[in-house]
């Protein structure tokens, strides 16, 4: 982490706000202007908390901005201890120009990347942000995000099926030590679905968090039963929420989509198979109304496990 911080600080330093961007502002001053232009109105205490800037340093900086005609400062009418800070028209223009030049500088850094590299970089940065924000929240750290995360559940598009296989294999290997036989099982399930399914009675969903893939689930006809029962029974498969996206209700959303689809398709029950070590998933199923109907020990994916069958009457 510290090595990356040094690398990234040097990389950002290469932009050299005062020289390469042809502006009279330091990086810290640019951050203050950026926050002010996006917050419209705020106070000095908000800025200190958001940017982790020393109170004395921030006060001197705002005094310079005020002298240049970039901001106005006034005591809050509701609380005399708080100082309201607002950009002037000149300040908004300065912030606009700074953001425009910063954007151009970043674009020049990305020019040498392929489209795939850019997409991978964006996904990686979003994942890192989610993991670090979640860790800070669990540790009681104070993080302030710019509004609630954007959650979207959609139908799969080309490329999603490969992602389902990769994420299932990677997550279960990392968290439970499951071997490649689990990846093979997921690959068979995905291949069977992608190779030909009845869209009126079978479906899959991808959950997105802030525009990146973060979860999945499938609803398929239960071919393990005889012909008549298969017409009445659907099976929920491959529910997954990426570790970086947990805590946003994606699992409940995905299971809810699956249940609603199964009902609309005319199934009488929805079943699933899981393992007792998957405690978080079991809690999602219980909230959705599933009931545990059977358990059996087995050795799969390199481990001794206890499989569980769950059922929801529709």
From TrEMBL:
SMART domains: HTH_MARR. It comes from Streptomyces abyssalis. Coiled coil: none annotated. This is MarR family transcriptional regulator. Residues 1-130 form the HTH marR-type domain. It holds the Pfam family MarR_2. The lineage of its organism: Bacteria, Bacillati, Actinomycetota, Actinomycetes, Kitasatosporales. GO terms for molecular function: DNA-binding transcription factor activity; N-acetyltransferase activity. PROSITE patterns: GNAT, HTH_MARR_2. Keywords: Transferase. Residues 151-314 form the N-acetyltransferase domain. Gene3D superfamilies: 3.40.630.30, Winged helix-like DNA-binding domain superfamily/Winged helix DNA-binding domain (1.10.10.10).
